[in-house]
Design brief:
By secondary structure, the protein is mainly alpha-helical. The protein contains six helices and two strands. The chain has one domain. Helix 1 crosses helix 2 and helix 2 runs antiparallel to helix 4. The structure holds zinc ion (ZN). The site of zinc ion has 5 residues, from loops.
Length: 118
């Protein structure tokens, strides 16, 4: 997130974000996806998670104050999302008997007529 503009109420501590710019670099996302062994959509999701973390009141406050810790939580969030994708259980492909049973069901007109089980 670049160029955030907003205000901090020093009395209440409330922050107001007025505008910010999000720029996604496709090539960086593709390269990072390869590096982490996930696909580009998953890596994009992690990047969006990173950017959403920049919109918390605490992060806007750090950003407007010019704090060096402004990237800490966003990086942590993206890492969590990447790990979730890396640790997901692979979806099992149907075995041949399941495919055969499905083909048999398709050939059975009663199933279609009664509209059951789909
Ligand atoms: Zn960031």
């Amino acid at each position: 997130m670049d160029d955030p503009t907003g205000t901090i109420n020093r009395t209440t501590g409330n922050v107001t974000l007025k505008s910010a710019t999000l720029t996604f670099f496709e090539k960086n996302i593709e390269e990072s996806a390869l590096y982490h062994g996930i696909n580009t959509d998953e890596r994009l999701a992690a990047t969006v998670g990173h950017e959403i973390e920049h919109t918390t009141d605490e992060n806007i406050r750090l950003n407007l104050d010019g704090s060096a810790r402004v990237e800490d939580e966003p990086i942590k969030k993206a890492d969590e999302i990447i790990k979730e994708y890396q640790n997901r259980k692979p979806v099992a492909a149907p075995n041949s008997s399941e495919i055969f049973r499905f083909e048999k069901e398709l050939e059975d007109p009663r199933r279609i007529f009664h509209g059951g089980g789909w």
